[in-house]
Design goal:
The structure is a single chain. By secondary structure, the protein is α+β, with helices and mostly antiparallel strands. The chain has one domain. Helix content is 29%, strand content 21%. The protein is globular and about 45 Å long. The two termini are 25 Å apart.
Length: 192
């Protein structure tokens, strides 16, 4: 959904100093995603991992979905940001020195001018009233490239903005996307 190149995710994990484990989805169906995640989670459980941490803030249906899927493999979901005020969270995020850029925006909420933008005070002030400042309703997605947990910032440049119409197929239909015609993506290009 974020459209971020794998190389940037690798550089992000390397700069933070954590191991990156990947799960691939090829067909794009929920059934494939759930099966691949279940297999992966069972591998992690065998290594002694029993909890998975999520950054979700207030979407009850998403929390229930995550908890139900983890229950299948007898693992527990942890939601450290649950029910916190999103205006307070984004302010704290910026105050701590984290830096992030929008890599994808939902055209129902935001236009092309908001994709590729760094989230700062100006960005937050420019958001329409119906847009959560943390993008919690899927209004936008981000790539975090710097902050106090990074050894060095992840270097990248911004490429073209690309519009992709929404394609709803089979079990991927999501009621929260009503009104969405597509998404704007900013191509983020890795630099050395």
């Amino acid at each position: 959904m974020h459209g971020v190149q794998e190389e940037l995710l690798e550089k992000q994990a390397q700069s933070i100093g954590i191991e990156l484990k990947k799960v691939y989805v090829y067909e794009g169906s929920n059934a494939e995603y759930e099966k691949n995640m279940e297999d992966f989670l069972l591998e992690m459980k065998a290594e002694g991992i029993n909890h998975v941490i999520f950054g979700d803030i207030f979407l009850e249906d998403l929390r229930r979905y995550r908890e139900d899927n983890l229950a299948k493999v007898e693992m527990e979901a942890v939601f450290p940001l649950w029910k916190q005020n999103t205006t307070t969270l984004i302010q704290k995020f910026m105050e701590l020195g984290f830096r992030t850029v929008t890599c994808c925006v939902n055209d129902f909420y935001l236009g092309e001018n908001m994709v590729g933008a760094e989230i700062d005070e100006g960005f937050v002030k420019a958001l329409p009233e119906n847009v959560d400042p943390c993008g919690e309703n899927g209004e936008f997605h981000t790539f975090c490239f710097d902050g106090p947990i990074f050894k060095t910032p992840v270097q990248f440049s911004k490429g073209d903005s690309v519009y992709k119409p929404l394609e709803m197929k089979g079990d991927n239909v999501c009621s929260s996307l009503s009104g969405t015609k597509g998404f704007w993506y900013c191509e983020l290009l890795p630099e050395n």
